[in-house]
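Most newcomers find our protein records easier to grasp once they have seen one. A learned vocabulary of local backbone shapes supplies the integers on the structure line. An example says more than a description, so a record of this kind follows:
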Amino acid sequence: RRRGADPATARSSGGVLRRRQAYLEDEAGRPVSQVAPAAIQQGEHAARNIRRQLAGAAPLPFRYRERGTMVTIGRNGAVALLGNRPIRGFPAWLAWLGVHLVNLIGFRNRLLVLVNWGWSYPFYDRGVRLITAEEPVARPDAGSRDSPSR
């Protein structure tokens, strides 16, 4: 936040965040996508600017680099836009798998995920499922202590 600025407004290099505005803007004033790659780029940029300012240099403006968009549609299906080239179907799904494997940290994590995916694919293994609610408990009927109400 700028010194002396209104507490409802914060400005970073290349971005403005206002109380009712839930996005950052690029150097041209366009909103930056609210997706993980944009957030990662913003975090890396903020870290570089903090190091620059600690060294006495001025911060640099944020420039978002659109690297493409990928979405899985289900088993063996996806769509992707890499640059100006659209890809769909099984090739896009394989590209999605590859991008996600490459972005994992560490060889062991990549190997474990690859093995897990390799096992899950032919056997339709769905992995862990969370229990979000307790099972209802039968309550005794008001007239009888032994019979559950129905």
